[in-house]
Structures are given as C-alpha cells and as structure tokens.
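Dear colleague,

Following up on Tuesday's group meeting, I ran the structure prediction for the three-component complex that the binding team flagged. I've pasted the input sequences exactly as they went in, so you can double-check that nothing got truncated or mislabelled along the way. The structure tokens for the whole assembly follow below. Feel free to forward this to whoever is handling the docking comparison.

Inputs:
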Amino acid sequence: MSITAKTEFKPKIVAFCCNWCSYAGADLAGSSRLSYPADVKIIRVPCSCRVNPMFVLRAFEKGADGVILCGCHPGDCHYSTGNYYTRRRMTLLFSMLDYIGVEQGRTRVEWVSAAEGVKFSTTMNEFVEKIHSLGENVRLGDLRCRN
Amino acid sequence: MQRIGVFVCHCGSNISATVDVEKVAQMSLLEPGVVHAEDYQYMCSEAGQARITEAVKEKKLTGIVVCSCSPRMHETTFRNAAERAGINPYMVEIANIREHCSWIHKNIEEGTEKAIILARAAIAKVTLNAPLKPGESRVTKRALVIGGGIAGIQTALDIAEAGYEVDIVEKTPSIGGRMSQLDKTFPTLDCSACILTPKMVEASAHDKINIYTYSEVDQVSGFVGDFTVDIRKKARSINMDKCTGCGVCSEKCPSKKISSEFNRGLGKRSAVYTPFAQAIPNVPVIDRENCIKFKTGKCGICEKVCQAGAVDYTQEDEIITEKYGAIVVATGFDTIKLDDFDEYAYNQSKDVITSLELERVMNAAGPTKGHLERLSDGKAPKNMVFIQCVGSRDVTCRGKVYCSKICCMYTAKHAMLIRDKYPDVNVTVFYIDVRTPGKNFDEFYRRAVEEYGVNYVKGQVGKVAPQANGQLLVQAVDLLDNKQILMEADMVVLATAIEPEAGVRKIATMLTASIDTNNFLTEAHPKLRPVESPTAGVFLSGVCQGPKDIPETVAQAGSAAVKAIGLLAKEKLMTNPCTAKSDELLCNGCSTCANVCPYGAITYEDREVNDHGIREVRRIAVVNNALCQGCGACTVTCPSGAMDLQGFSNRQIIAEVDAICR
Amino acid sequence: MSHGKSQTQKMKEITGVDPYKCMKCGKCSATCPLFNEMDIKPHQFVSYVLNEDIDALVNSKSLWKCLSCFACIERCPRNVKPGKLIDGARQLVVRQRGADYLTPEDIPERLDPELPQQLLVSAFRRYRR
C-alpha cells in the first residue's frame, strides 16, 4: 500500500450549451480570445431543453465536480419555449441534488446569447472559481448498476 | 464495430500554437474503434478534404471525427467531404479545439490535454452515430415582406422581377416609410420623394406585388419553405375598391386637430386622412380613436360627402391567412425618445427639434411649407446649433451604445442646405467625431465646412437653457480650444439616435428569429451571411439589422431578395434529419410529448405492434419529420423513455459525458 | 512600481473609474459650471490619469474649485464620471499618511479650551502613522 501525495485539484466540469445561442456565445468567447479555465468541457445540444436530468446525474456519477447548462435568454429560444422547460426542470433537479449532498454551487443554469462572448467567459470563470471553493465533489452512485 | 478516422487540423498556427496536434492524433489512436489518425495544416482545404476521402477509402472508415474549428464553421464542409467519400454525412462529428480550446488557453499542456478530451468525447459520440437521411419538404413560391419602407419596397421589387409573388405588409396607411419623410438625401442632395415615389408606384403597379397597408402580421407558423402567416388587415373604414382618392372626406372632416404622425407631431391631420399627398394606396383611413362618429355616434359627415359611397363604418379587422416560402423582415427604425435628456430642453422648447423633425420643417409639403422658421413664434432663425451623438454611443441607460451611423452625414446635409438657402444664418455643429466613411461622404462633409462655412466645433453641449427672451442659451465646450462656450441660438437640432421600430421584437418572436439586446435582428453570420437570419427562410433588409443609410439599405434589400429568390427557386428543400423519433415498443401514448412540442409535430395513431411476440394495437406517438425542428423537448419530458432525438440521442450524449468525466 | 504608476493604481481603486472608457466627447467640461475657474478642466482629468500624472491633479487648483455638483457624473455617456476622479484626488490628499499635520509638540500652542476632546483624538488617528 502506498500513499500518494494529494495532487492539485483539477475539477471536471461539464457545460451543456445550446447550439443557437450559448454554443455560439462560447465560439465568440473563443474568437475574442476571452479565456476561461480548461476544466470546462462543452457538449453541444440543439437546445438546453434537450438536457435530460439523467445526463446531469450521469455526469456527477462519473465524477464531475460541476455541471452548467447554458441556453438562450428567456423569450429568445430558437425553439420558442425550450429554455422555459430547462428552467423548470433544472430548478427542481438542482434542489433535489442539493438535498442529497451536491451543493447548489455545483449546478447552474445561465442564459448566454450568441453575442455574449464576454458573459460566457465570465460565467465560466466564476463557475470554476466556485467549484474550486467547494472542492472535490461527492461521487453519486447508481444502485441499479450494482450487482 | 465502427472504423473511425480522426483528423486533427493545425489551422495554420491557430490551433497548433497552443495544442500539440500530433499528440492529439496519437492519443486518439488509443480510443476504441479508431483505426486512423492524422494531423494536417488546413483540414478544410481541398488537400485536407482529399486526405479525409482517401483515408475513408483506404482504411474503410465508417465514422469521422474532425478536430478543428467550431462545427458552426465547417461542419457542412466535412459532411460534404464524407458524402463524396461515400459515407453518410451524419457519420461526421467535430471536436471544437479552436474556439473552445486553442484560442482561449495559453498553456500548451493544458490546451493539449483538453483537446485530447474533446476528441475523445467526439469519438465516443461518433461510435454511436447512425446514418441519417434528410427528408424533403416543399417550397411555397411566394414571399412575404414585413415593412413597406424603401427596404421592403426594393426587396419586393427585386423578388417580383424574378417572377415570384410577393406580399408587402405595412402597418401604416401607406408604403414609403421613413424615406418618404425625408426632404433631401446625402451626398447628392436629390429630393427624397422624387426618387422614392417612382419606386412606390412601380411596386403598387407590379402584377406580382400585393400590398397590404394598415395591416400587421398576427401569427406565424410553419418553417422554411412553408410558412403560414395570419395578416391582420385593420379596419380602414373605407372601401378600397370604391374610394377614388378625391380627398373630400379629409377636407370636410370636422376633427382636424390630431397630431400628424407623418409630420412627427409638428402638423395636424384630420380623423379621416391619408398620411401624405403621394400616399400609396391613395385611400384614406379613419382613425377610430379620434373620429367623432366612432366616439359619439354623431357626425358621419365623411359618409355624406363621399360621392363614391366608400365610407363604411361597419368594417371590421380582417384576418388573411396566406402561405409563404420566404419571409423578409424590413421593419426599419424610429428615433429614440428624448424624455431622459433633460439637458437639451427638448420637452421644454418648441425650438429644440430632432433632425427628423427638421426634415419635415425643410420639406415643402411639411408643416411650415419648407420655410425654415422657429416653431415657437414663426420667426426666421439667425443662429442654429446642431448637436451630434444625442443618445448614440451612450452606455448609460439613457441612450444606445452603438453609433447611429447616419447622423454625421445628415447633419452635414442639413447644415449645408441651410447655409445654401439662408446664407445669413450661422450654423454651428458640435461633434465628438465626424464619421464619414462612404463614397463621396468625406468630400461632402468638407464641402459643408470649406464652401458653406459651417462652423464645426469638437466638443459636446452640456446644456440648452430656454431664456426669457425666447432664445436658447447653449453651454458647450470647444475641446481643441480648451474653452467653454456660451452662445445664444434660435434653434437647436438634435441628431437623435435611431433604434429599431418598436414592434420588431414581437415580430422576431413570432418568426423565432434572433434579436440582440438593442433590438436589432441578428444575422446568421456577421460577415459571410449578413442578410440572413439564423432562422432558415427569414431574411433581413434595412435598418432592422443595423443602422444604415439609403444606398446601403437598397443594396441590402437587393441582397435579401437574392437570398429569398434562391430559396423560392428550389423545388424541394432538404429537412434536418436530426428529428425526434419514438420507440413504438416503449411508447405508452400518454400525450405528454405532444403537449411540449412547439411545432405541433407529434400526433398519435393506433398501430399494431409486435412486443416480443405479443401482437396488439397501441396508441403511439408519431413525429412528423417535416415539422419537427429537433429541439428535443419531447425526449426529456417522455416518462417512458420512448422518445429520442436522432443525431443527439440519449446514448450519444451520455457517451460524451462519460468521455469527458473519464 | 513607479510613483506615478502606484498613485494611478490607487486612484483607480478609490474611484472605480476606468479611464479607458472615455471617448473624449467633452460632455463633462461642457456641463461643468466651474469650468472657467479650473486650471485642469474636467475632461483633462481623464487624460492625466491615463498619463499617470496624478501629482499634477493633486496639486491642481481644480481640486478645490470643484463644487461636487455631479453634473459630469450624471451626464457622462460612457460611465467614466470624471467628477469621481476629482473626488479621488481629494481623497489622495486627505489620506496621505506620515505627512503629519499634527505632532504632540504642536498641541499645547493650538489648544483651545472650546475644542472638543474627540477632535484631538480623531486628528491623531487620522494623521499619525
């Protein structure tokens, strides 16, 4: 048995971005060279409402330290109403996650338009900072998969 | 098992400067299913694409991952390359290692590590990709133009000339828009009406153009090629077929003191009116809010005097439902409200006016018949002050952050015209910067200074104070002289910022077209697709997209028309194959998905299914692929997990999550 | 950090003003009721901060001429608010430490029987290291 030195905390952060606003906002952050930590990895979804709560749970189950969803501003959804569903679903999910020990700070929904490269970058910086302050996450387990 | 090829792009040095591309390729080879990986200078170049097609053939690839710029940039390019190589274009996934990686990270280790993970996620996803085939949908060969100003008129004319039917919807009683309110146009000083009126006539006489004035778009449904639009024809109270446009009704109308919108509130109109003499159609409307007949039930003079019997008080709003293949937004602009700009005394003095109001004052058909006079006492002004950037380039809540673009030029025009017509009037212009990019624009501005003796002062005005003697005391600064200026003026003209027309947000919402924080409609790409909205089938014409002058508006109008014609010329459109699909064995027909679908794309049918040998008829959700836009709302709401989105399936996204968190 | 630079930094911290936002429109100077009394004009305050010449501001007449009417702050279209810079420069003067205006030796001769005790205490607190 060996004891390894505790390495520097490198959070794993999954960002779901809707194709029409937030993904484009992230692209704009990139083309404007507005940096944010490399811990954030973006998954493109057509609309924030495509994000099944199961995806968020899955991420935490696999060791994610934070999950952020970005969509179009209310009223600007490319599909008219998608982000309203996101808002409701995630409010419920996040409060449930908080209850089981995944703090509210690890989950976030943010509206970022295609023109808001700056907002995207500042949001990600803030979010990563928050995750750093919270430290490593508890690992969720899926009882269904246990034999 | 899939055979996946990974192609890592250097993008010159855009990616390779902060990402070790070779390492990304090497590491990708370790992923299951990857049989080929390489890096290349420019993957999107012809040579780069050729490498992809060669590799597909040589290594018998079934899936492709390109690690490059954003999929919004080159996804189509690589999908086409895949198709040429003989594999389904939807077997391509892009790992965005430029915008989301190399451009934002400076440390090469960090950048490389992230790029490897992004590649891994894309590989994990493509492993689960399935070939998809786009559906087809029909194209209605008719275009709708929203807005009947110069932008809308020009777009409609260009589309009609190509042989397609066009409808113009204009909310005011006449087409013509802002340009019809202008007196002269820069930099040639030709009369605005003289160049606009023939266009208006041409549009109204064109057999392919149908104009709905005093009408608004009420509802839009459908999608590119097949929009269904409800147009509300507001009750005009005048029968358009019978009216001869003689004008007797307006003349005899006893309610004459209504502020004229066309004259920017500087003149009066009657309750039954045409906004201006050259209005098209030359048919008045009854403004029901101010009409005595509608208010009290008495009067009815217009009906009595109308020899054609065209007055009809019983008319009601009419909804016209029409199908269109393309929609062009040309809603134009208005000047901002100046209520928050107390320092300019706009609300206190009649002699402080906006530039658009000055256009009406200078116009021979305007409230002063074209005589330059103070609106308070009708006296001829001796000293005039123009203030530029009123509300433009203003980051506070009072103004607009952008440059309104047209003000520098029209101010030079006004100053020049006044000095030309009234040489004894002193004209002072306070400016921050004079911006005159454009053909013959700077020459024009210099002429105002050098030939017409307009006094340009670099500096802003701090305060305009009406004096007891009727004069306006202007306190300003001359920054070059470093002196404060106090001067008396007879009239002050404010180059007021412009903003998109008030109703545009509602229209954008109906069209699901994106709109920015300033209410300008967003273009699909700021440089390469400047006249298209990101929403397919919706095009942008004129100031609704951003501030611009008349020549630019006309150029953009033509460009929007070309895009619309390109769409209308197609017989069929390929639809997005990334649509929802329900698993008939899992679906329990609960109707939850149909409730959240914004497109009404989900219906139910009783279908016989074979569930592990048990044959029975079940109520099952069916997605109409032509209507489904692929948002995925239904997939999450489905309680039984029957609904999934092709191209972004549950398993694919979970695979990406797993790859990232590994 | 040079003197000018550290002073500039301090100025930005005190005021929260970002001088780079200025578009040099001159609205502040056009608005200022005390323009003619000032040696450094309101709009120039921004350039002095940009040029890191805070000493000139601190020693200017304008500092004590400004009425703090906040017209320039109210009307600045770019949220630069030069009035805040003037206020900041005043703060720099007031906050100077070590530059003792009062030493214990001075007290006896300045002592005034009507002077409240608290004033002396707070004067020491402010001006002594």
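Residues 17 and 70 of chain A are 5 Å apart (CA to CA).

Cheers,
M.
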